[in-house]
Design a protein that fits this description.
2 copies of one chain form a homodimer. By secondary structure, chain A is an alpha/beta fold. Helices cover 42% and strands 16% of the residues of chain A. The structure holds NADPH dihydro-nicotinamide-adenine-dinucleotide phosphate (2 copies). One NADPH dihydro-nicotinamide-adenine-dinucleotide phosphate binds next to helix 10 of chain A.
């Protein structure tokens, strides 16, 4: 009974962060600019606060300029919009991330739409999504971090994507849909399944590459997989586990125990996609900073050309 | 040997145009506004000229204000951009269409990008594509006409889309990609196949709904279809036909003779998707005009509420 090779997200993310750090050093040396990442957090959800701490630490380690805006739960939408507007005009900030979810008394879509497209570190702007889905036009300034992380995992594990069948389980704006667009751009033949899909297990069995982003603990079973399939598990779900002090355990959207006996390669949870998301955020912000530098230098280039 | 029911695009398009005309009458009566459609044509390609004539006739018949801008083949890109800029600020024009292809000495992407998103009658703007692909956010101001036409054909033929498997053959920006997004938004489970896909016939056989937009004459064969599948043929290809005076004949991307023996419903070529494209263009422009009217009326509404 062969076991799948584990795709080590921690290791790949560390490598990616190292590459980003090197580019930051170069950007500082050549242009005197450090990529600036601003994180806006509203309220004091534990999970959000922890995630923001991790982002800040990773940004600082990579040599970024890091800005934190923490607003109380009781803030008005106008106050959050104000904070975003200030960051939009702050020339030291190249990427802005508003930590979701926002308190329920504000409109997330409106707040996200207020972020300048040039500083859309999360790649959530409709304009960027359009550019992602269109072939052959302008590149988006950024693409959603978790999907980009999934593709990095595949490519850095030497998984061939072109010509393969990929099934994406889930079609959310922040994971499933952009993952599907990225896989298709890499010439996979992509099927997207969702809550209205019948016979999901049969469709998953057609796939050479399965990306699970469904938000249901251990949803995809080993018995659904084509032998040798590559599995990327985006899920982060807690299930009860009496053997743990916390009483719970983090699991993915894939049933790892059974899937790892059928797949050829698989990402674990934790330690798979999770670490890639922050690494991709840094890379996105680096790119935005590089784009800002090249915009600033453009008039000069034009005159001299 | 049962034959597929023919989906009559001419009849459905006529019905759609009639509905548009009724809405135009209403818009004129209540707001004194006729939807304005501007078509920009550069050069004198025969096919483009004929298509533009058909658009103009349909627009006039539906009660539209119709503007034609015909520029010589020798025009510069700057002249075309100028024409678009003038139409952008013309309050009588609600939809602008630049007939493609443009002469090779100009950049199509740049010209299309110059059209105001509010007047993007073809739904080609990246912002509109992004809104199409994102779930639950703002509606796009328009969606590409041929894809919208395909969906109208399915819905007006009472084809159930939700929960069905759909295969889209082709992934172009103007047909395949937006058709796939529309089908997925209607809760189909969509697979997009393209030139890098292996085993296309096997994938097509999984589909309850097949949309062929591949640009290859009679590409999809009856033997590829699941019995009872619904087939939408977007293709417009000419093949040699000695029995015709013109020496050629228009055929689709589906081999109609064999497919119509396996499918339950099928669109013919000509008389299927073709007539729907212009009807959808009129509907798009009507919607843009309605949106412009409601934007113009907004301050008033705000003050009085
Ligand atoms: N590791 C990381 O950094 C990140 C991890 N995540 C994790 O990834 C997972 C997905 O996140 P997200 O995309 O935001 O989740 P959403 O809840 O936004 O989307 C879930 C998707 O799965 C589909 N779905 C839900 N239930 C079923 C079902 N029973 N059968 C088939 N499809 C179903 C939904 O379909 P429909 O559209 O029809 O409702 C929807 O498209 C979660 O576990 C989340 O915690 C998310 C972001 C980052
Ligand atoms: N009735 C109407 O109003 C309209 C009709 N049309 C017609 O629709 C058809 C498609 O148009 P359009 O989308 O613009 O065409 P494009 O040439 O832009 O796109 C064709 C698509 O088909 C794919 N493809 C090409 N050859 C193969 C093959 N052998 N196997 C699998 N996939 C293949 C291409 O794949 P890849 O991406 O990998 O290159 C591409 O995605 C044409 O016949 C066109 O005339 C178009 C617009 C309007």
């Amino acid at each position: 009974n062969k076991r799948a090779q584990i795709i080590d997200g921690k290791k790949i993310a560390a490598q990616l962060r190292k590459e980003v750090k090197e580019s930051v050093t170069l950007l500082k040396a050549t242009h005197g600019v450090a990529p600036g990442l601003a994180v806006v957090i509203v309220g004091d959800r534990q999970d959000s606060a922890q995630y923001v701490r991790m982002k800040r630490r990773a940004a600082t380690e990579a040599g970024f300029h890091s800005v934190d805006v923490a607003l109380p739960e009781s803030s008005t939408e106008a106050e959050v919009l104000d904070a975003v507007a200030r960051l939009n005009t702050d020339s030291k900030v190249h990427g802005i991330l508003v930590q979701l979810p926002l308190p329920s008394h504000m409109n997330e879509g409106r707040v996200l739409a207020a972020i300048s497209v040039d500083k859309d570190a999360d790649g959530f702007a409709a304009l960027n999504v359009g550019k992602l889905c269109l072939r052959g036009g302008e590149e988006p300034s950024a693409v959603a971090c978790t999907p980009v992380g999934c593709l990095e995992l595949l490519e850095r594990s030497n998984v061939v994507i072109a010509g393969k069948r990929a099934v994406v389980v889930g079609r959310s704006n922040i994971v499933g849909m952009p993952v599907a667009a990225l896989l298709q751009a890499k010439d996979a033949t992509v099927t997207v399944v969702h809550s209205k899909t019948k016979n999901i297990s049969k469709i998953v069995r057609e796939a050479d590459i399965v990306v699970a982003a469904v938000g249901q603990a251990q949803f995809v079973k080993g018995s659904w997989l084509k032998p040798g399939a590559v599995v990327v598990d985006v899920g982060t779900n807690f299930i009860p586990d009496a053997s743990r002090k916390s009483g719970r355990r983090l699991v993915g959207d894939v049933d790892f125990a059974s899937a790892s006996r059928v797949a050829s390669k698989i990402t674990p949870v934790p330690g798979g996609v999770g670490p890639m998301t922050i690494a991709s955020l840094l890379k996105n912000t680096l790119r935005l900073a590089e784009a800002a530098v090249s915009r600033d230098n453009k008039p000069l280039t034009r005159v001299s050309s």
